[in-house]
Design brief:
With 786 residues, the protein is an alpha/beta fold. It is 44% helix and 13% strand. Helix 5 (93-104) crosses helix 10 and helix 16 packs across helix 17. Bound molecules: adenosine-5'-triphosphate and magnesium ion. Adenosine-5'-triphosphate (ATP) binds next to helix 3.
Amino acid sequence: MAARPMPYLDELNSAQREAVEALDGPVLMLAGAGTGKTKALTARIVHLLNTGRARPNEILSVTFTNKAAKEMKIRVGKMLGEAVEGMPWLGTFHAICVKLLRRHAELVDLKSNFTILDTDDQIRLLKQLIAANGIDEKRWPARQLAGIIDHWKNRAWTPENVPSAEASAYNNRGTELYDQYQRRLLELNATDFGDLLLHVVTIFQKNPDVLQQYQRWFKYILVDEYQDTNVAQYLWLRLLAGGHKNICCVGDDDQSIYGWRGAEVGNILRFEKDFPGAKVVRLEQNYRSTEHILAAAGGVIRGNEGRLGKELWTEAEGGEKVRLIGHWDGEEEARWIGEEIEAMQRGTRGMRPISLDDMAILVRASHQMRAFEDRFLTIGLPYRVIGGPRFYERLEIRDAMAYFRLVVSPTDDLAFERIVNTPKRGLGDKAQQKIQVCARQNGVPLVEGARILLAEGGITGKGAGQLRALVDNLERWGRMTRVPVINVNDDAVLEDDSTAQAIEYARPEVSHIELAEMVLEESGYIEMWQNDKTPEAPGRLENLKELVKALENFDNLQGFLEHVSLIMDNETDDHGAKVSIMTLHAAKGLEFPAVFLPGWEDGLFPSQRSMDESGLKGLEEERRLAYVGITRAEEICTISFASNRRVFGQWQSQLPSRFVDELPEEHIDVLTPPGLYGGGYGAAAPVGEVRSSIDQRVSEANVYNSPGWKRMQARASQRPVSQPRETRNQVIDAQAISAYTIGDRVFHQKFGYGEVTGIEGDKLDIDFEKAGTKKVVAKFVMASTD
Ligand code: ATP
Ligand code: MG
């Protein structure tokens, strides 16, 4: 066969080429971020195909996400210069295992059409088992058991071989229930996610002939992100590669970020032991990021002990330093980032315009996304959330919103259906059906139907009392949203005679924020998650706090609900460029010209949990996450933190993350926050001075009182330093200093752009371009830089 052209090899450096061309035997590519591991792995597939070593369906290639699999297929096609005829075995561990399991289901007593349970089904099943065993589910929640079982499955432990050291799990009954659960799944012809891998490993272990068949079939095995494989995945790979040992794994010990989900960075470190004679290729040239970005990432990761310690270099010298900026609070951070993104999109400071598709915001915890989603919606900045539901689509947020909807509009039957038995109120399907029938017969909404049913004694027992409490609560909360009288005596509003505007100033007895907290507390919804012992529960509680925080930007629940329905509507539009918002975990393997890393505060990043833990394990994993975050950036990397965050109605002052202190000074530009004098770019202050101000910040808890900070502000503005800026979200009392000065250009959602012509406490006189002169409360306007 005539040699085929191999242009894809010319795109590689010599180390990459070596890894690509060493087709036979085990190969490990162990190298830092952006050194072209994934690129080399892709080239290796192309080379295998091009040299005729394997056909597309004889290559087993594992990626970490479905998205990565899709991208790899596209890249293979491009490099090969022709469409690839299906690569059925290129995918995630799960995707590949589903296929294998369908083929051999009978070997583990399943039928090939088995169903895969989602988490909800899984929990329901566990609850049934728990009840059947006479265990009090309140004390020993099903979710806790689900977590334990998942953990065991990640370690490839079937019920028979869970080690005795684990015997105390779930009140000493974990193993027994695990066994029952597995049996029940078989009866239902079902699996959960963890089973997919575990069953296939069992099949391979118990059926050498089947294993051999696949060992021969998969002529070559390739694995990306090897540092994040768990024990079950590792065993699976070892079994499959056991024959020819043509396995090529690539990874980076510094990017191991799934320890909390059972990943074992040790897998990568013992590759050479498992596969003696393995070729180990190290790559040191980074092709992704500028010098400053690499150096900043390197500075942070140096703080970890027991690393393999790789040095990276890049030809991309110079470029922008990593930018660091502190903000007054989280809302201001979101606002500033929104403005920055728009500026970059236009092309700022002599830089080329950057498309929204090329920018990403990477957060530590998904609840941080809310502030950005809200802000971007307000300014009409298109965004997408990657790797998870958008904030307002999350289960707990939808539940909470259903409560709010019902409070505002008691006729919202869908909302009622959603929450009537969430948290559990002892109202099963039968009781719910009765409510439906009663409502229909009387031609009234479900809440009303429930009330009638209760009055008629149509519902009895435990459920009746709880239903009554719910119905009564809904009515009471509903009364609180309605403003008793419109306060037209307030002089401040007389200049605007529209009723809508007047209502803005009339206050119900309880603020909508207090009301929202009350609803979530009194309904038992918060408690439900507090009692929940699964790993996701703390995150859900955080999201609920974040939801309450979101309410501050609105003057009533109604306005908020409208805003959210707009967000949900927005979602259907999938065209055009968009900023990506995702967690650091979801960003693994990706790259963007411009990256924003907000919320670098102790307790948020590193997470509180990792800081509370004894030992450094958790903290080191957080540091690797920081490394992953910074190394996603190609040209511009912006790290930010806020001094204040509001947690359930309480302002909390925050300290900058310890990782901020680990950023090497010479690669950092500290930007001056918009702070006192409105938005826009601040001049970068000398790093030394700002560093000292940051250090001071750590000791003083609130940087805005620190002399260094005030000096910096004064320099930036060349105006005398006055009191710190009041954010529009803070409660403004009589003495409060307005955030605005006369002559400021502002924006009001209803009246548009205008200029401040007078200030009186928290009220501003504004000359609006279109709407004329009006007096409005300062918190309803925002500073405009247009
Ligand atoms: P991560 O650890 O973040 O997953 P990685 O090591 O997999 O990174 P890649 O994503 O493969 O790195 O490559 C990073 C960037 O460098 C990509 O844009 C890629 O196209 C480019 N690149 C890789 N190798 C080369 C090369 N030899 N010449 C030019 N560009 C390269
Ligand atoms: Mg990669």
